[in-house]
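retry 2 of 3: previous attempt timed out while embedding BTX. Reduced batch size to 1 and resubmitted. Inputs unchanged:
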Amino acid sequence: SKYKFTILSYLYDHKDQHVSGQKIAEQLNISRTAVWKTIETLKEEGFVIESIQNKGYKIIQFPDVWDNNLMRLLIGNSEYFKSIYVYKEVTSTQKMAHEKLLTNQEPFIVISEVQNSGRGRFNRVWDSQGEKGLWMSLVFNPHISFQKIATFNLFISLAIAETMRSEFKVNAQVKWPNDIYINDKKVCGFLTEINGDSTGVHHIICGIGINLNHALMDFPEDLQRKATSISLESGHTINRYTFFEALYRRIELYYQRFMTTEFSEIKEQYTAYSNIWGRTLRYTEGSKQVMGEAIEIKDDGRLIVRDADGMTHQFISADIEMQVE
Ligand code: BTX
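retry 2 succeeded.
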């Protein structure tokens, strides 16, 4: 229906009240039949829309699929992101984001229901088969130095962990430099890539994967011991739109902080949210491997680790194994 977006926006703008078909028809200058038909279409697509006689329509629940129209509405309130690309299935939102960047240099988001070739760091596989998660890539366009980018992940980690803690009541912890864990299991991983030249960074492409409504059986067998979801940890099914909206707002806030302050401003909170202190873990960076205990994160984002002999080592972006056998 050609009125889908307009009617959905109208209902969305009035989501706290009922609005009559008559009123919608008048306001949008379309026939009452067209209003009724469009609302039927929305219902078929999974929107739960209440209709009460003499009061009218009200959206009660969003469908559990990423809807292009709805996403455009949510992003419409964004001060930062200019557009969003919504897919049912892609190889990888990260790959799509790189492609879109060739023709669109304004900040945008790519999101997909399923990725059939989601990837992690060092081309590892990121499992994102089921329609249960949040798989998206965010594109930012700052003009900053290469040096500054080193702390970007630390700001984004806090945005994600804080969203989980404050809105979904789970004990999310940050695992330096780019994972979020709950009860020592990975709930989210993200990776940051950049486009730039000799003058500095032009674009940041940040791919974020979050397990939201997975049951244990939704993970491949080898992940079942290591991975978890917000739903498993909180005991509730997560409304993915609620999560998405809460998250992107906090990310905008933390991005703003990243641009205007230093890591030292959030270091205390980051340290308090971190799950690596007081335990001996295995740190790997390139060919370097150290068993030791993390002792500090420096203002520039480096991690300092002390080994059993008392020697200290510093890392820029090590892999840390949480379950050392
Ligand atoms: P990473 O390399 O730190 O983590 C990858 C490792 O995490 C895997 O080797 C596996 O052990 C484990 N893993 C894989 N899938 C999951 C999962 N669903 N939950 C928990 N653990 C898992 C972290 O890389 C960065 C991941 C970024 C993913 C996003 S999704 C949107 C965007 N598109 C894309 O292709 N990648 C990013």
